[in-house]
Amino acid sequence: MPNQKGTKVVIQPDSIVTNMHKYTYAEPQKKHVPTMNKISNKVAFFVINVLIFSLFAESESKAQPIPPADSNIPFLVTFGKAASQKYGDDDFSQVFFLSIPAHETDPFYIRVFDPDVGGKYDEIYGGVDTKCKFSIYGGKGAWSDPDAQLTDPTGNYKAGTLVDSRTFSESEKYDNNWYSFGPLDPKEGEFIEEFNGYVFKIVAEGISGDDGNLYNYFFSRGPNVNISIEGANAFGYEWTFRMPAERNAVCHLYPYITDDVVSIQQFNFDWDDDGIIKIVSYEKKGEWVEMSNEANWKSSTHQILETERNSSLDIQFIKTREKAKENNNICFSFKNQFGEFMRFYTIPIGGVQRFKYSLGVLDNAREGERYKKDKVFVK
């Protein structure tokens, strides 16, 4: 890699249940037309049920997931520490941060989907022998310690107060299922004035074995359903994730560019020549980065113009292999010209930039031909 108590709740699969009452009219001895009051009551009950369903559905759609839905990233990945780096994880650890607004007082939950190793989604080599530990940190230093803002699991990167943790191995109970840490008090996080909120750190680490654990997070108000925490956001400095298997699939990461950034240096690990990685912004219609092969790092430096600041770039990972590669895992991070690692937010800050001119079919076709012929990146 470049330099750089809650109560446990067993969760059943998510569901939204709406109690839709049945209304029947007994046929009276004498025919009559239902009164307007009865019709109004029936309509009112129907409308109330629809509104209840809509509110739950909206909460579900606005929940804070990692990865976010619009990233098209199916899973985060953390391998056991005995795994080969050829599997796509360079250090067998992954860190994310959650910022909760300062005015929040209600408890919340950090939910992990499929936290066990083995079963439906995970990448297994031989027998399942891997354990993955998830730890929640708050308190002083959780984010503010300099080591916590690097991408290597070294030094004091676990700074802060341990709030809760759990280790998972193979488990039918949690395979393709949810585990919730919580309830958690927002004030247990580290107050950071820059965020005007409390920050929690979530560390996933493969403490044994050589298998890959594929999982997702949701930060929710409820233990059994994904209900958004308004104003909350999450970010990481390095993402290790699984690419979709389908050819021509496109995944996205959104690094925020502050107003003092004039250049960025990207790092990618174990791309496996799986296609194209490019930067899209108001000024860049698709600036390629230098791309890695198996178990190695590649980096390239790219200039940032004034119109690209105070918003989020769109980093696109595009599969273009004739035969789509399955189980391709990749690590990705960014630095600015000061050598500081940059944040990839789940809810892009300042909006996601789009190229200032429309691209037609011909432009896209030319880019595909360029990939086949020269496979270079723009400096």
Tell me about this structure.
- The longest helix has 27 residues, at 36-62.
- The chain starts with 7 loop residues before the first strand and ends in a 6-residue tail after the last helix.
- It has 2 domains: 64-242, no CATH class; 243-379.
- The protein is globular.
- It is mainly β and 379 residues long.
- It is 11% helix and 34% strand.
- The protein is built from 2 helices and 23 strands.
SSE layout:
Blueprint: E1 8-11, H1 36-62, E2 64-66, E3 75-79, E4 93-101, E5 108-113, E6 131-138, E7 161-168, E8 178-184, E9 190-192, E10 197-208, E11 212-220, E12 233-236, E13 238-242, E14 250-253, E15 256-257, E16 263-269, E17 275-280, E18 287-288, E19 297-303, E20 311-312, E21 314-319, E22 329-336, E23 344-345, H2 361-373
Antiparallel strand pairs: 1-8, 2-11, 3-11, 3-13, 4-10, 4-12, 5-8, 5-11, 6-7, 6-10, 9-10, 12-23, 13-22, 14-21, 15-20, 16-19, 16-22, 17-18, 17-21
Which key terms come to mind for this protein?
379 residues, mainly beta, 2 domains, 10-stranded antiparallel sheet, 7-stranded antiparallel sheet, globular, disordered N terminus, disordered C terminus
Q: Biggest sheet, open or closed, and with what strands and sense?
A: 10 strands, antiparallel
The helix/strand series, from N terminus to C terminus, equals: EHEEEEEEEEEEEEEEEEEEEEEEH
Gross geometry: globular
Radius of gyration: 24 Å
Span between N and C termini?
22 Å
> Into which percentage range does the β-strand content fall?
25-35%
* Chain-averaged pLDDT: 83
Q: Based on helices, strands and strand pairing, what is the structural class?
A: mainly beta
Number of strands: 23
* Helix content percent band: 10-25%
Q: What is the total number of structural domains?
A: 2
Indicate the low-confidence ranges by residue numbers.
Answer: 3-36, 42-63, 373-379
Number of helices: 2
